[in-house]
From TrEMBL:
This is YHS domain-containing protein. NCBIfam families: YHS_seleno_dom (NF041384). Residues 1-25 form the signal peptide. Keywords: Signal.
Amino acid sequence: MNMFIKFLRLVAVTAVMSLSTAAFSADIDISTDSNDVAIKGYDPVAYFTDSKAVKGDQAFSAAHKNAIYHFSTAGNRDAFKADPEKYAPQYGGYCAFGVAMGKKFETDPNAWKVVNNKLYLNLDKSVQKRWLEDIPGYINTANTNWSTIKTVEADKL
């Protein structure tokens, strides 16, 4: 009987931790359009597998943290569903340079870079050019800033 009680406690703790994680991740402000589509419908997995921005197809979709992602293939969708944190863009899909400045700016899906197996997006190619001048420094600053602005709506910054 004692083992059964321990098991039930473990199940309860795991359930509470799962709920806490889900609630926490739902609070993050994600960059989406009016239909909750992220990255303007571009396939987040393609940045890693094809090394280019590829427009997704709504026939291959998956939801993650209150955002809908489109994929160019069912295989890409399935890879994302298996490990969404691996493929989802950093900083909720907002401009990496903007987050380093303490702001949240929309992004151009064609202004991107994968660094240390993480996807970073920028406002546009001109902003990306500046971000490329000191990627490690801007990522470090953005990581620090993100911890305080991730739950704040973009228009409140």
